[in-house]
Amino acid sequence: MFTAINRRSLGQLPCLAQRFHSTLVIAEHNNNQLTPITLKAITAASKVGGEVTRLVAGTNCAKVADQIRKVQGVKKILVAQHDCYKGLLPEELTPLILATQKQFNFTHICAGASAFGKNLLPRVSAKLDVATLSDITEVKSQDTFVRTIYAGNALATVKCNEEVKVFTVRGTSFEPAAVERGSAATEQVASPSPAGMSEWLEQSLTKSDRPELTSAKVVVSGGRGLKSGENFKLLYDLADKMGAAVGASRAAVDAGYVPNDTQVGQTGKIVAPELYIAVGISGAIQHLAGMKDSKIIVAINKDPEAPIFQVADYGLVEDLFKAVPEMTAALKK
Ligand SMILES: Cc1cc2nc3c(=O)[nH]c(=O)nc-3n(C[C@H](O)[C@H](O)[C@H](O)COP(=O)(O)OP(=O)(O)OC[C@H]3O[C@@H](n4cnc5c(N)ncnc54)[C@H](O)[C@@H]3O)c2cc1C
Fold this sequence. Notes:
Blueprint: H1 7-10, H2 14-20, E1 22-26, H3 36-48, E2 51-58, H4 62-69, E3 76-81, H5 90-104, E4 108-112, H6 115-128, E5 132-139, E6 144-149, E7 154-159, E8 165-169, E9 185-188, E10 218-222, H7 233-242, E11 245-248, H8 250-254, E12 275-279, H9 285-288, E13 296-301, H10 308-311, E14 314-317, H11 320-332
The chain binds flavin-adenine dinucleotide (FAD).
Flavin-adenine dinucleotide binds near residues 264 and 306.
């Protein structure tokens, strides 16, 4: 009976269709540890329904595969180990994903909407000749997803009719899957011949004792109002007192005050901490797109008309050069 049903008729048979859904989630990791967004992508995949399979590709990734085995909701882990997966280059991962897709015929393929996922999945979609749904914030059903448009000012509910639905998942919109009580089976998959188009040489990561921006519970962000890179020290002192990460507006990044990996916003990182403190930031829509889902927003700005106050839960109309040292001093007590 099941073999008589083709994919096109599945839409009219929701309960049977449920049996056929299978989502491949591409793991992002550094051979030692999964990135937190990968656990959130698993949650999104579980909401699609059907089986969730993880693909872990790397040079020496047994430890990561072991970690995923414990993740709730994962049925199977496909492991591919080869030197060519060093640095997880999309040029090398794409042929692997295509070969895996050919073998298992997944209905959905997803990854976190991080630099890794954004780099990889459009390439996979192009090869499969389907569209990518980028940065989804909600799964309504196996073919209907929500994503933001107009720099986060509107939500679009999108129905995807592609045979294989390829999507990236916004990390701040999903809870991480629990790393407990999982019992996924592991299967080794063969690696296709290396594409050899590019080679991973090295990466230089900013070293910081502060928490990582996208997973920090508290973020202190500075804007053009800080006036110089040296003045960001005021924010570093405050952040260190609060165990916070430091972010910035694009204007502060473009002016060279801080490195571009600190940029929050539409073209920067999306954050949703428990507490977001915006200092000397006007609140342009492109900045709000990256932080307005924060649980509590505090704004410090000397201009009472600054748009940031429209989204702030607490606003302080004050000169930041007075307010920030006072806050830091108060925390020292
Ligand atoms: C396609 C596109 C993508 C973009 N992507 C992003 C993005 O990802 N992230 C982003 O942030 N922006 C982005 N932008 C830029 C965005 O439009 C704004 O230009 C930028 O966010 C402004 O940064 P700002 O608030 O630091 O600077 P400003 O708008 O210049 O605001 C500075 C604020 O500091 C206040 N201030 C000044 N001095 C003091 C003081 N002493 N005490 C207290 N307050 C003070 C001022 O009142 C003002 O409100 C994008 C723009 C475009 C067109």
